[in-house]
Amino acid sequence: MKKILALIFLMVCVSIAQEKFTNPILMGFYPDPSICKVDDNYYLVNSSFSYFPGIPVFQSKDLVNWKLIGHVLDRQEQMNTNGLGVSRGIFAPSIRYHKGIYYVTCTLVDAGGNFIVKSKEPSGPWSNPVWIPEINGIDPSPFFDDDGKAYIVYNSVAPDNKPLYDGHRTIRIIEFELENLKVKGREHILINGGTDLSKKPVWIEGPHIFKKDGYYYLIAAEGGTEDNHSEVVFRSKNLFGPYESYKNNPILTQRHLDPNRNNPITSTGHADFVVTDEGNWWAVFLGCRPYEDGYYNTGRETFLSPVKWIDGWPIINPDYEEVQYFYPYPTKPATDFATRQYSGNFTFVDDFDDEKLAGDWIFLRTPKEIWYSLKEKKGFLRIYLRPETCSGKGNPSFIGHRQQHIKSSAETKINFRPESEFEKAGIVIFQNEKHFYYLCKSKNKLNSTIQLFKSTSGNDIELIEEKIIPEEIQSDDLFLKIVSEGKEYSFHYAWKEGEWHTFENKLDASFLSTKVAGGFVGAVFGVYATSSGKESNNKAFYDYFLYRGNDDIYNSNK
Ligand code: 6LW
Fold first, then answer.
1. Rounded distance from Cα 71 to ligand 1 centre (Å)
2. Rounded to whole angstroms, how far apart are CA atoms 360 and 70?
3. E strands, 312-423, in order
4. Known active-site residue 32
5. Residue 21: which of 341, 297, 311 has the closest Cα?
């Protein structure tokens, strides 16, 4: 009997050990991940650009199931991205823990530059940014040496700011006094150009330093954050170098693989390392999932792969050429920890019954006024119509949820009575100010109508389709839905729940891809109301928001 029980126990252990997790671990635009481990918790932060709140902070017990526990920049006084394009603002953050304090360094591009914030708790409250004007570059990352000294390592300009070629950058380091949060002494160039200057390496960035077996290891992204992206590693016995480039660099890339392979994961790079209690090393890094020809709308997402040390060098994803969608769990699964899914196929619904918005909602730039309410009408999100539009660089009445799947849908039910053709309320799929589709209720001279707009390069919108709402439809309610099917979006409406009518089918989704739209973000579904530049006292009520993600890869066998 004992032998049978032991066998069953062994089988259960093996099955848990074999239980696989899905990549990306954070789907949708969660780029430039940085991670640290404190006791039995992992904490991870991502870039967030001009969206507010800035720098999401995730917590996990197993590196796979993540819970959003807050944002580093969740107060107006911490960040103001008004006037910036959506892909400016918060670039790559780094999170580190040292002697009871959490530190995040980051760059607020075009609105302050490099800064550091700190907190006793990763969920905050975080301090206001302390600016570091001495750092001329991006992607700052703290490093705490064994002798108690603190440093910041970062991407910077070419030596003497005289690049030998486009993309010629350096990795530099400067000492940092934690007490007064000031830099100390001069900066040192650790890496000039990248792994081999003679080959003109571009965009060495996203640096992190850690110490192991008497070496200072420096990992960094190289090649630029597109198909040519990679992660490389250097090491030195001296913090200030000289650093030796690993002869088999890069330690991660997918640039050499067939772009026409099935379910490609591309542009991998910008990694950070973490070690589990079992002593196993893992890497988080960004990657992309094109649906065809390099087009992707889900932005740069956070992936997790194992790291193996070989002859004193760390190799990411050593057992495969392709980054995998499925790996065995790094450690014992903690599936009951997370409050929602960020990986695999899932549904997210907000019925707006709470008095606070779910933390996953994001605003376009920093709201200066509270134009929404969950209290005015219990169970509804009330949004005031305001002149700002998604074509501008202000803070429109927009609240967004990332598009996290190639195949997904977002639907809502609005209660809204437009009083002019300028007044609109509905749902938008937004990539940037010049690349979005907007499905809304409005009116023409005489009637209430359903309208579908496409943004223009002139920061305006053009009407694609309009339908007069029949007089027999007396209710102010309207159901609206956008469906993404990879290279196409389709748009639907319903008078009654579930009775959908197709309004416009198979519109070009690549219009919202990074390849077409440019930038560093991904597409975002949003509830959005506007009075199109005019003053208005009108408001729209949203009854619910329902997101569904259903990518084929996760319906296959793991
Ligand atoms: C980030 C840089 C990069 O600062 O893109 O992928 C920039 N790498 O490291 C914005 O994400």
1. 19
2. 9
3. 313-316, 326-328, 346-350, 362-364, 372-373, 381-384, 397-402, 407-415
4. yes
5. 341
- The pLDDT, as a whole number, for residue 13 is 53
The per-residue pLDDT for 336 is 83
Probe ligand 1: pick from 231, 270, 300, 303, max atoms within 8 Å of CB?
Answer: 270
Mutating to test ligand 1, I would choose from 30, 32, 109 the residue with most ligand atoms within 8 A of its C-beta, which is 32
DSSP helix/strand/coil, 415: strand
Domains and CATH numbers, the chain: 26-328 (2.115.10.20), 346-556 (2.60.120.200)
What are the pLDDT digits (tens) for 439-498?
Answer: 999 999 889 999 999 999 988 999 999 999 999 998 999 999 999 999 999 999 999 999
pLDDT of residue 8: 56
HSE, CB side, 13 Å, CA atoms: give it for residue 152.
35
Contact 404, 439 (CB under 8 A): no
In whole numbers, what is the pLDDT of the chain averaged over residues? Answer: 96
Catalytic residue check, 205: yes
Q: Of ligand 1's atoms, which has the minimum distance to the CA of residue 229? A: 6
- 244-280 pLDDT tens trace: 999 999 999 999 999 999 999 999 999 999 999 999 9
**Of 139, 205, 222, 433, which one is the catalytic site residue?**
205
Closest residue CA from atom 10 of ligand 1: 91
Element (H, E) at 93: none
Ligand 1 center to residue 552 CA distance, Å? 29
Q: Whose CA is nearest to atom 8 of ligand 1?
A: 225
Q: What is the pLDDT of residue 412?
A: 98
Using 50 as the pLDDT threshold, list the residues of the chain that sit under it: none
Q: What is the pTM of this model?
A: 0.96
Q: What angle do CA 300, 209, 68 make, to 5 degrees?
A: 45
Probe residue for ligand 1, chosen from 91, 227, 255 as the CB with the greatest number of ligand atoms within 8 Å: 91
Please give the backbone phi and psi of residue 356, each rounded to the nearest 5 degrees, phi first.
-125, 145
* Of 18, 17, 30, residue with least CA distance to 342: 30
Please name every residue paired with 144 in a beta bridge, in sequence order, or none if there are none. Answer: 150
Q: How far is the CA of 190 from the centre of ligand 1 (A)?
A: 19
